[in-house]
Amino acid sequence: MAEVSLKSHEQVSKHKRTRSHPFVYLLPHLAIFTIFFFIPLIFGIYIAFTKWDLVRTPVFVGLDNFKNILFSNSIFHDQLTSGLWHTILFVLISVPFCVLVPLSLAVMLNTKPKFAKFFQGLFYLPSLFSISAVVIVWSLIFNPNYGPLNTLFNWNQVWTGTQPWAWITIVVLTVWWTIGGNMIIYQAALNGIPQDYYEAADIDGASSWKKFVHITLPSIRGQLLFTIVTTTIAQFNIYGQPLMLTNGGPNGSTTVLMMNVQQNAFGSGQSLAGISSAMSVILGICIMIVSMVQLFLLRNKD
Amino acid sequence: MKKSHFWGVIVTSIAVSLGLTGWTSTAVHADDTKEIIFWNPFTGPDGTSMQSLVNQYNKTNPKYRVKNVSLTESDMYSKIPTIVNSKKGIPDLQIVHVERIKDYVNNGLLDSYNPYLKKFSGINKDNYVPEAWVNGAYQGKRYGVPLDIHTSFMYYNKKLVQKYAPHALDDNIVTFDEIKAAGKKSQKDDIAGMGLTWWKPLFLSLYGQMGGELTKNGKDPDLNNKTSRRVVNFYKDMHDKKITTQDGDDPMQLFLTGKQIFLPEGIWMNNQIKESDIDYGVTNAPQLSSDSKKIVNWSSSHQFVLLKQPKRDQARTEGTLAFVNWVRTHSIKWAESGQNPASLAITKDPKYLKMQQSFLLTNKVEQDSMTIFNYRYNGYLADYLDRYAYDAVFNKTSVSQYLKKMQNTVQDEVDAQMTN
Amino acid sequence: MKNKKQGASQWLSFIFLILLSIIWIMPLLYGVMSSFKSNIEMQSVGFKFLPINWILTNYSDLLQNTANTPVFRWFLNSIVISGGSTILVLIVTSLSAFAFSRLRFKGRNVLFIFLLATMMFPPVMNIIPLYKIMTLLGWANTPWAMIFPAATGAFNIFLVRQFMDNIPLAYDEAARIDGASDWQIFRIIILPLIKPVLFVVALFTFTGSWNDFLWPSIVFSDINKMPITPGLKLLQGMYVADIPTLMAGAIIAIIPTFILYLVAQKYFLQSMSLSVGVKG
Hints:
The complex is a heterotrimer of chains A (about 300), B (about 425) and C (about 280).
Chain A: H1 2-15, H2 22-47, E1 50-51, E2 59-60, H3 64-71, H4 75-110, H5 116-124, H6 131-141, H7 148-153, H8 165-191, H9 195-203, H10 208-219, H11 221-236, H12 240-245, H13 257-266, H14 273-297
Antiparallel strand pairs in A: 1-2
Helix pairs in contact in A: 3-4, 3-14, 4-8, 4-11, 4-13, 8-11, 11-14, 13-14
Chain B: H1 2-21, E1 35-40, H2 44-58, E2 65-70, H3 73-86, E3 93-97, H4 101-106, E4 110-111, H5 130-134, E5 137-138, E6 141-142, E7 145-146, E8 150-157, H6 158-164, H7 176-186, E9 192-194, H8 199-209, H9 226-240, H10 251-256, E10 260-266, H11 270-274, E11 280-283, E12 297-300, E13 302-307, H12 314-330, H13 332-336, H14 350-353, H15 359-362, H16 364-369, E14 370-372, H17 378-388, H18 399-416
Parallel strand pairs in B: 1-2, 1-3, 9-10, 12-14
Antiparallel strand pairs in B: 3-13, 4-13, 5-6, 7-13, 8-10, 8-11, 8-12
Helix pairs in contact in B: 17-18
Chain C: H1 2-34, H2 39-44, H3 57-64, H4 71-102, H5 108-118, H6 124-137, H7 144-150, H8 155-165, H9 169-177, H10 182-193, H11 195-211, H12 214-219, H13 228-238, H14 243-274
């Protein structure tokens, strides 16, 4: 069926002179992409192979920066390994929540309860806020002296200054802040599943759980894959939450790689842009590998 | 229908804001305008003071008017190297902290004042606080003209001092021993002796009092030593004995609500404390010894510098210096936000002498107490002290680990720098 | 029996949703309430949900301090920037997605995968070179510095393309037989049909640009030209110990995206009936 329509599509095109070159449609995006993303990216990667203070001309040093951060016992090696580990830890804890929470919300909303629209709006609401606004709100909640958590329950917990609470506060904030987008995508996907699938299963007497596993999940597999990959990429880039909520503490235990990247490039001392860039190249490679593994594991098997 | 409604919202809002913001006037500064672009990190009360200072200057009809651009400190420092490198939109006049100057000179970020100083004889060492003036020069050339010298000293609650440490202030020097004695008494009433506020000045001030030095050869840091161990253990001991505030406490809030006797803080915080109804006084930062010759008050200085221009314009630069020179004699405005101007002309102003922070400038002993920790690679050290702050004092890591990491971090960062 | 069962799960969901939404809204409501408290009240009184004395001075002080914190100005700048980004993204994305979905050309899939793969590099890598390009163009401190980079992303193209792929090719063919050009097919057939996904893209772009944080704090040095998110950071430095005023600033900053969302929300529902077609 698809082949037939494809053929006729091409046949028609041969006869028509009104066909424009596809490039015309691609040009606006490709031009913007090249100037404002690709060229800077290439230059950014090049910096990883140089010593640079952002002021003078970068000096090419080959693989020195990578050797330094990967194999030496310098502080930069520590920064890379501990920063990467903390980032991965955050990804491992937060991604499941950032997928499962919005998924269950979408499933509940899909039963079309009363005020579904209101609920949807409410859960999406935090996604509209900037990270600064979100941190302002939550640092009030977690404030050890006059935050509602401590004053209301008479607790005496320094939430952002002790582990494991520091990570928990960061993850709670992240889940609260970011689930809206995924929820919308799942809702849309669930809405698109033909009702007769479920009706057929009802006749067979399938339980709700079975229906969820055998009908719902396979039907939204594409959306799940998409959101898992995009959420993972987003969480790998975590920066604002630990910076503003915990300042990377206690004792550097929430210092993520992006914070080290940022500080090496734009810290108070002379910029170490080469090392900073090498760290972000490593981060980029990690993200690519993880995304490809995810795509491979979750690929369409048919 | 619905679509047009949606677009309506966006298009109208853009049209409205286009009109209001005038976004088409793009250029940050065109070289032919008679306006000097002045970047500084002043926000809050400082920002207001600087703006009114600039307004006052512009009313004198100078040849070059000044345009005041306030930025957040971290953003401003991120921008300086990038903007100098891009060679476009470089501000004519820039404020930086004095500790940056050595590094900036070495990185080729600054132009020297020397060729222009002849015309401005007022800008000389006799007219400025020595500690601030001396640190504005490097390798025999002048790169910074001080605006102020700002100190981290100590606020105290008058009522609580009377109750717990009635004689501590007799000599205007509050020693750590006096704080410890007061804190022991006050903790029974759930009142903290001293607030653990900003770690960097607390650490450096005590390190200085104990005779510690940040470097032996001017390049390599020397931070993991007997003295630094003593300093961290000293504060840790005070913390463990509950003399100081604890992890998670907000010292400023405790002070403002009368639950803390001593608050070591910057003179720049004065405005905020003034707004509360606390009866407070100010004195030197906490000291080890009551010998007035040994006082150390951690200080820094905001300095006017000239960022490197590809082609420096003689007339523009003179216009810039005219402003810098004018500020020297009009800096009473700068004192109003709680700061101490570095210009000695201010000490003759009766209005200034009534201000609380003036005791630091009016006598020689206090002037000498103000110490700028001007290690060339201070930036790396500051980043470490700000990020890991009280982790050792609050027992989140061991003192030896903390100092070892501090030494390694600064050493490796110094070694990784681009050299000339 | 079926209806009964469905009714039960509906009620169960309803109860869960109520519980969760209370958890979700509380931090925000508490923040809103705090913005009407005085700083002294905030710091000295124990837990009180509602202010004892309702005050508006946090808002009025903030809006009046135009020299240091021109909040209203930032607000307008943000509308220009986010609105401009949204328009550019919609144009560029729908055109590009059309090519990827409907037009055949050599290396189509390779190009598409390449575009997606580049998105995996952390954005911080581009910042320094991008800053240089902006200063070369003289665009630092102008809305263009944010509008153009916003349109580089490939995820939006991915979303729109997937949606387009669900539109039967038969529509195009019918039009082609009637002599329609590619452009006419795009304008008359495809564009109206992809409206729902474009609303989703518009919302994502608008909020993404509104909330962008790292890049604007580098590229804007003029306090009067910057958008509201780096502005909020400026506020944070200025009102360190004044949480109610900070909160007031945060609330002012979220109003426009909130309104946009109220407007766009019904299109979300509409887009659902057509499904955001993301296939693996």
